[in-house]
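Dear Dr. L.,

I hope this message finds you well. Following up on our conversation about the binding site, I have prepared a predicted three-dimensional model of the protein together with iron/sulfur cluster. For your records, I am including the exact sequence and ligand specification that went into the calculation, followed by the structure tokens. Please feel free to forward this to your student if that is useful.
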Amino acid sequence: MFARMAPIDRRQFLRAGAAGLAAGMLPLASARAEQEPARVRRYVRLGRTELEVSDMGFGGSGIRDDEDVVRHAYDRGITYFDTAEGYHGGGSEELFGRALQGVRDKVVIVTKMKADAGEDRASMMESLEGSLRRLRTDWVDVCFNHAVNDVERMKNPEWAEFLMRARQQGKLRWRGMSGHGGRLVECLDYAIDNDLVDVVLVGFNFGQDPAFHQRFTRDLDFVAIQPDLPRVLRKARQKDIGVVAMKTLRGAKLNDMRPYEVGGATFAQAAFRWVFSTGLVDSLVVTMRDRERIDEYIQASGWTRQARADDLLLAVYERDHGGSQCRYGCSACLSSCPAGVAIPDVLRTRMYARDYGDPELGREEYARQGAPAQACISCAEPTCACPFGLPVSELTRDAGLLLGRGVIPGLGRT
Ligand code: SF4
Ligand code: SF4
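The resulting structure of the complex is given below.
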């Protein structure tokens, strides 16, 4: 059995915050004092790359046409810009290319490509050159193999050869791997042990910390997903590999947290402070869509500890969303579907549409996966099961109906 959070109502939340239940953490008064002005307050060394970057980076997956938002982030001190060839069919890279013209030497731009296990170096080089054209630059600072969850992709000798040649040609500076799947730890171990990465970008949030849950549940049956993740991140840091966290909001279901956000702290800031407080990452990236969110998010820049009420905000979020949030790094349900539906991947596309409020991103990713949940729409006897109690068949069916319009399974969008 997996533990659930005990109920916390708003009155209890306020009382607990006032009493300082989270002993040893910084008070919110300090948080307020540090909230002016809204600018990045800490720049960090990204491991052996020696790149100096803002402790909070601009994630480009949720934006396609608003140059002003990118420039606003730059004006607020953000210097790390993260994109991928797959975001909006290259539209995110094009946006960065337009918005960051003239400041290329002052920012770090990283991009990602999905290099498969059997792919050759020529097609990888073609992908990189496409990214450079869209980004209007001669080089990217880090090129990540994107969303790696199969160690064979890192073992592909063509990947290492491509990286070496692209570096020699000045098209990229540093090598990276990103991931957030069930086999992330195995892939990271391989990449680190075989010196294939200078920077890693990993899904990492408070819900992946067993100690966080145990503080509230005291339930000895709780089993952490990826309990080895902190170990592998420590190993990366010992080897001076830069570590960047993503998926730090644990699903970004932000809308109903406002009633609990008192005393100058928001849930998002609490989630970011948790990441910084672990000491396991250099920086984090978060999807940025508008000025208001940027100004809210960067209030957490500069923190290296939690504020007093942070744990309670995180606990409320977990209580309210833990029953419907697919856990990063989990794949416990994969074998429960006879049709072989890649359930975690499907639920991630649904999360983009429903929780991030970005149906276009959800549809793009769903189509790229080959519309896997169409089988769920007509599944008469669902056998899929989640040990955390997620209603898997309802959620996958919802994804199929929501995201599958205009998509031919296996062929992508019509
Ligand atoms: S649906 Fe449940 S079992 Fe499946 S990946 Fe998500 S959290 Fe894990
Ligand atoms: S609803 Fe049916 S097809 Fe879809 S994941 Fe569950 S068992 Fe598989």
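In brief: The first helix runs from residue 10 to 19.

With kind regards,
A. P.
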